[in-house]
Design a protein that fits this description.
12 helices, 42% helix
Amino acid sequence: MSGFKAKTIKSVIAKKIANWVETIEDEDLRKKVEKNTIVTGGCIVSMLLGEKINDFDVYFRDHDTALAVANYYVSRFKEKKGKTDFKLVVTDIDGRVKVRAQSVGAASETTPVGDYRYFETRPDQEGTEYVEKVIHGAGENADTYEDTQIEIAKNPDDEKYRPVFLSSNAITLSDKVQIVLRFYGDPDEIHANYDFVHCTSWYQSWDQKLVLRPEALESCLSKELKYVGSKYPVCSVVRLRKFISRGWRINAGQILKMCMQISALDLTNIEVLEDQLTGVDTAYFLQVIDRLKEKDPEKVNTAYLIEILDRMF
C-alpha cells in the first residue's frame, strides 16, 4: 500500500479531531481542545508509509487544557459508571497532571475487582491479547502506560470516544484516540521528550496546519532510525525491539548515543530507574520496580539489579 500525501494526512487528522471534539459535552472544554491540540507520533508515520494506524496520539499546548481534559474524563467515568469501590482522582503537582486510582490498582465495569487481572500482571503477549479482547483493540496502545490502569468494558450503546483505559500518563479513548497527559507545550517542547526523529512531524488544531519535518521524512523513506536524544534513553533502547521487528534499521552510532546518555544516569536509584522505564511495554519491569522498592536502597547495586532482571525474564 502506498503512503498518503500531505493533503490527505491533514484531512484525516482534522476529521478525526473534529469527530472526537463533537463528543465533548462541555462547551468551554470543546473550545479549549479545538484551540490547543497537537497530534504527533506514529499515526503520521503510518500514513506516510501506507501502514495501519494504531492510534492518534493527542497532546495539548498548555497545562490548563491537559488538566481540564483529565478532569472531564475522570468525571465522566464517575458519573456514568457509578463506581464506589475506588477513588479516582486527578492530581496536579508541580505542573505534572496525573490520574490515580487511590484504593485499588485496577477495576473493570463487568468483572469483580477481586477477580480482575489487568494486563500489567501478565506476560507481554498474553497481556496484549487480553486487552485486545476486552476493549476492542485498545491494547495496541499498551506500550505507553504506567502503573495504575482502569479498564472500562464496551458500553451497550457503543458510545464513541469513550474512555477505555485511564493511566497516570494517558487517557485512551475508543476509536483510536490516545490523550497523553505526561507532556504538554508547543510542538518543540513535546518533541524534546521524543527519541527518534521520524516521529516528530505534527498537526496543530488552532490553524489546521500539518508540519512534515524534512529530517523526519528522510528517516521514514529510508526506514532508518535516527536518535535525536531523549530524557528517557533506557526506554529508547527497549523500544528498539519494536522498530527492528517492523523492518527499521539503526547504525552503531545511534546506539552509542543512547549509551552515552544512559551512562550519565544512576540506574541503581529506584526513582531514576522507574522514571526511565516510563512508557516501556514490558509488564515484568513493573515487577522489577516493586521488588526493588522492598529492598534497602543502600543494598541496591548493579549486581543486585542484574540478579533481579535475570530472575524476572
